[in-house]
Amino acid sequence: MNEADGAQVSSTATLSAQLCRICHLFGERQWCLATSGNFSARVDAGHFLITQSGRDKSALTPADLMICNLDGRPQLAQLRPSAETALHQCLYRHGDQVGAVLHTHSVTSTVLSRHIGDSISFSGYEMQKAFAGVTSHEATIEVPVFDNSQDMPALADELRQWLRDDRPPAFLIRGHGLYAWGTDLAAAQRHAEAMEFLMSCLWAEMQATSR
Ligand SMILES: [Zn+2]
Fold first, then answer.
1. pTM (predicted TM-score)
2. How many whole angstroms from 138 Cα to the centroid of ligand 1?
C-alpha cells in the first residue's frame, strides 16, 4: 500500500465512524425508523461512502456502508445500493462543494410535505442562520417539494434542473422525507437538523392557526 492509499483508508475509516455516529443520533430521534433513510459522505472526487439498503440506522456499523462511484456502481459488486443512491449521485455530481448528503424520513417531513404546495418557505426564524451563507433571520428560504414519483431517474432529472449553488441545501419529497447536504458531514448534519427544526415549527404554527 502506498502513502496515498493509506491516507484514503484512514480518511474512509474516519468518515465511516462519523457517518455511524450521525445514523445513531438520527435513529434515536426517530428520523429513520424501519431501516428507512440513507446517509453518505464523499470519499474523493469520484467516490462516496453510503449506507447499504435495508440496514437499521440506529445500530449501523462500518460494515453496513459501501463505496460507490459517481455512476452509482458499487466498488464491491456483490453489495446492493439503495434505489435512492441516484439522488446522492446527482448531488455529488453537482460539484466538490457537496461533501455529504443526509436523507431522513421523519414524521414532520412526511406529514408537512403532504399539506403544502410545490415549495415550503421559511422567514423570520433565527434557526435559518444555521444554513451556510444565511446571516439574517429576515431572509426567505424556499425549499422545493418534489412529488414522490418512485421514478428515481426522473426525480434525479428534476433535482438536477433545480440545483444551483445559491439555493438552499435541502429538498423534500412529498409524503416521504427530507434530503439535506453540505460541504462535509458536520455541515450536512447542521442543515438537516435546522430543516427538521424549522419544519416542526411550521407544522406547530399550522396546527395553532387552524384551531
Ligand atoms: Zn427515502
1. 0.93
2. 31
